[in-house]
Amino acid sequence: MTLHIYNTLTRKKEEFKPINPDCVGMYVCGPTVYDFAHIGNARPVIVFDVLYRLLKTLYKDVTYVRNITDVDDKINAKSKETGEDIRTITERTAKAFHEDMAALNAGNPDIEPRATEHIAEMIDMIETLIANGNAYAADGHVLFHVPSMPEYGALSGRNMDDMIAGARVEVASYKKDPADFVLWKPSEEDVPGWESPWGRGRPGWHIECSAMSRKYLGNTFDIHGGGHDLIFPHHENEIAQSCCANKTERFANYWMHNGHLMVEGEKMSKSLGNFFTVHELLEEVPGEALRFYMLSAQYRSPFDFTKDGVREAKSTLDRFYTALRQHNDVVASDVAAPQPFIAALEDDLNTPLAISQLHELLGNFNKDPNPQTKGQLLAAAQLLGILQQDVEVWLKGGSQENSGVDESSIERMIEERKQAKANKDFAAADRIRDELDGLGIVLEDSAQGTTWKRK
RNA sequence: GGCGCGGUGGUAGAGUGGUUAUGCAGCGGAUUGCAAAUCCGUGAACAGCGGUUCGAAUCCGCUCCGCGCCUCCA
After folding, report:
1. Which of A207, A297, A318, A448 has the most neighbouring CB atoms within 10 Å?
2. Taking the mean position of all CA atoms in its chain, how far away is CA A230?
């Protein structure tokens, strides 16, 4: 089995053939930094982190680029609303984003370019587009002229007539064609702006990805990813800009899009009160549980995020960690993840199937705790980015840091219970166990003694 | 209106034209002072209607239902 990827461009699962087998390039659309990342923002981060881990085992070198959008009208609006300086907002939000994603065990990309640091590259690209006859300046704006690109619409599978028919937005007077989109727009005094051949202004939404991906990955690269909703218009417009500016037929060879999140069966929205930021969820659930939960469905499917689901993911991880603790004395061999597990991931990141392999490994390990199986289990888990932390920290930290008992009192009560058991005073022993249970502490007796964990 | 995706057992969620997904929950058993953890066993599904086929939950068509996108939302 080799890596196969569902390509939005062709609507088929295809064998992945990198342009250069020694160095795979991947670009994923990153956050606009104006507010905490919500749980839906976490899905692509986790999914492409798993892909990155997998690619690194398959290829010598992988370059993963994920941008930070720090110039955007939503940021401007936020600043106007709170009075906070724009730079302060973007710096603080980017930092929070990194912390939250780290808690989800998602590593940083190799390169994380910021839009504001690549204005010159964007202006350069826009000038090329004008020179090539694909863009025009009007009213302080620069617009991409969609009819100048006959192939426009290939990614999203739509044609111009459909779009005009379905258009529900007023068409600005300076547009030559209703489908034309903004590359550059003028900035009023109180809005961030940069000097340009078209006056003081700021870039449109799509141009940063075209400019920055070209700078770091070249005119054509392997994989471009992002949320399903970005297919149109964002990615469609990126393709138009890049192919016309670079005079190439292909921008990215493989387009991957993750499905959206629902919350408790409903669309996540602030008004419904089911809007969760990663930041607030991390206060009640370990990031690893959120990550594992997200991976329980294939990345292209819509995902219904529920609190019950998170709890189940957490207790499943408990099972794995409990087994690892029980056989703490077994030293894991340095082996690769088993082939069926790899094959599942290579099949368009079939993480649910991969997880079922993980369960099989767990069963084998419980039956026969040997170094080989433990090594395989940990190697497989590493690719998913789970089961890498200290077993005691996981089991004793749990999700209830606030349950109010400290470790020394727990140890003391376990000692008391041990005495009671030695005296065959089972009523007293059970009373202690019940008391601890009420505090969220579960005891596990074994021949080696008693261990505990938080629920 | 246009384009696209999906409907699998109590639940979450894979999958293949004919043979057990897997987890959770349930039921029975082993183990345990009793539990917990673990192990063994077990029931249960492929939205509906047609078609192709020796055979379809898996391919095709239609119907019903749900969802997404259609200019700045991952």
Report:
1. A207
2. 14
Which residue positions in chain A have pLDDT lower than 50?
Answer: 165-168, 399-400
**For A148-193, what is each residue's pLDDT tens digit?**
998 898 898 876 665 554 444 556 778 888 889 999 999 988 899 9
B11 C1' to A376 CA distance, Å: 30
User: Is pTM beyond 0.80 here?
Assistant: yes
Domains of chain A: 20-258 (3.40.50.620), 262-394 (1.20.120.640), 400-454 (no CATH)
Nearest nucleotide (CA of A157 to C1'): B3
Q: What end-to-end distance do the CA atoms of chain A give, in Å? A: 40
Provide the pLDDT for residue A111: 97
CA A366 to C1' B25, in angstroms, rounded, equals 22
For residue A74, report the phi and psi dihedrals to the nearest 5 degrees: -70, -35
For A99-146, the three-class secondary structure string (H helix, E strand, C coil) is HHHHHCCCCCCCECCEHHHHHHHHHHHHHHHHHCCCEEEECCEEEECH
A29 is in an annotated binding site: yes
